[in-house]
Amino acid sequence: MEQIVINGVNQLSGEVEIEGAKNAVLPILASTILASSGITTLDNVPPLSDVFIMNKVLEEFNIKIEFNQVQKTISVDASGELTSIAPKELVEKMRASIVVLGPLVARLGHAKVAMPGGCAIGSRPIDLHLKGLEKLGVKIDQHDGFIEATADQLHGADIYLDFPSVGATQNIMMAATLAKGNTVIENVAREPEIVDLANVLNKMGAKITGAGTDSLKIKGVDQLHGCDHSVVQDRIEAGTYMIAAAVSNGNVLIKDAIYEHNRPLLSKLAEMGVKVNVSDDGVRIIGPKVLAPADVQTLPHPGFPTDMQAQMTVAQLKADGISTMNETVFENRFMHLDELNKMGASYKVEGNFATLMGPTDFQGAEVSATDLRAAAALVIAGLIAKGETRVSHLEYMDRGYYHLVSKFKQLGANIKRVRIDAAGRETLVTDDQVISEESLA
Ligand code: EPZ
Questions:
Q1: Ligand 1 atom with least separation from CA of 193
Q2: Distance from Cα 302 to the centre of ligand 1, integer Å
Q3: Using an 8 Å Cβ cutoff, are 305 and 298 in contact?
Q4: Fewest CB within 10 angstroms: 69, 319, 368, 386, which?
Q5: Does the CB atom of residue 303 touch ligand 1 within 6 A?
Q6: Strands (E), 177-246
């Protein structure tokens, strides 16, 4: 078993580098299925467990992948004869692999992808993905835990998404690039990761306009080719370090952070008394001695991101007063609060609405992560808690945070990662050890 061990209280200072976005590189890797000629070279790719899994999924289709983890570059050759079955054991490991469905059926006329499970934060249905693909002429069958998609020829369509689902927008947009005719998708997701994916597809020869707005127009083309692309910075990783600086009375430069990608978070932090200095080098966060409370509601982009909700509740709990958090995107994303309660937090949850009673004098405790962003929230709480905090279930953490321990250590935190054997003996584990083991898993 591995744990992150933090001794508080820490005041962060210095500067931190941010990786390429996990939630951009996963759909971009799926989009390489569409390139029937040439090689796609991606850089700024974070060596994360989710990326290793997506690479394995693509290799199942006979796609050639070379991942240089030191250079953080991947080269993908999908120009050969591809197969079209995504196996259960891989899809169950990472539900985001469902976005291979659209590209596969568009390129090959067939795809068989295991149903992605739900996860801790919600049931994660894919009805909008399937409805959109059917509008493009795809026949969908669901049997034996698989989704089977077949299509002789995809055709353009006018599609309206009941909800601006990120995954559904990605799947349908990718499939529509090779449809005959024009497609309009309305009420689409507007996240920066959608814009990055559309940029890659257009570099491959697709004809997409409107990315970043609430409607996409796609002119179908006959085929796509490889391209070169640098993955957009991870605004959620950046936001995680912004909050850590804000709650620790810190002074941290988030290098090359893109202000526009984190406006909702930064305006909330400013409302709480945090100094936000935007410059060519990135965004500097200067945390106040006392944070003011604030009410937050998560929404699809450009609203406050649900992926920053858990981390934000730590800032709200630290603040001097009552704050509220309304989680409108997922149905069960407050599990981190039970763990924070072990550290002294007090709150009330009614449905998707949490009332957070600050200020909290966080005390170190043994806590366990329930999902990726909850893990980050528990580490942030550990940084400002008195005494020792131990965070377990780091497999969630490793999905989305590269070199988290080294980066926080670099910012002055008293933090380490240990492996505990059956006899209870602890040995230090480095971030690079974790990655090399994951890449071989
Ligand atoms: C992406 O998930 C992200 N994952 C999530 O990040 C992020 O929280 C989410 O978008 C929202 O921003 C990746 O990009 C790999 P959705 P996705 O489809 O695409 C409902 C993280 O921590 N819905 O926008 O699955 C769904 O139940 C992860 O990095 C349907 O009802 O999100 C949810 O309530 C967590 N039917 C809401 O929409 C559908 O067909 C948002 O889901 C699809 C979605």
A1: 14
A2: 15
A3: yes
A4: 386
A5: no
A6: 182-186, 207-209, 215-219, 224-225, 228-230
Q: Is the CB of 239 under 6 A from ligand 1?
A: no
pLDDT at 120: 82
167 pocket-lining for ligand 1 (C-beta < 6 Å): yes
Q: Which of 9, 85, 115, 119 is catalytic?
A: 119
- What integer pLDDT is reported at residue 175 of this predicted model? 98
3-state secondary structure of 251: strand
**419 bridge partner residues:** 2, 427
Specify the residue with its C-alpha closest to ligand 1, atom 43: 126
**Dist CA 2 CA 430 (whole Å):** 11
Q: In what order do the strands lie in the sheet with 182-186?
A: 158-160, 182-186, 215-219, 207-209
Ligand 1 pocket test, pick from 126, 166, 232, 328 with the greatest ligand atom count within 8 Å of Cβ, gives: 166
Distance CA 59, CA 78 (A): 9
Instruction: State the 10-residue block means of pLDDT for the chain, 441 residues long.
Output: 97 98 98 98 96 96 97 98 94 93 98 87 92 98 95 98 98 98 98 98 98 98 98 98 98 98 98 98 98 98 98 98 98 96 98 98 97 97 98 94 98 98 96 87 77
Q: What gap in Å lies between CA 308 and CA 357, rounded to an integer? A: 19
227 assigned to active site: no
* Backbone phi, psi, residue 330, to 5°: -115, 155
- d(Cα 74, Cα 72) in Å, to the nearest integer? 7
| Ligand 1 atom nearest to 306, measured from its CA | 8
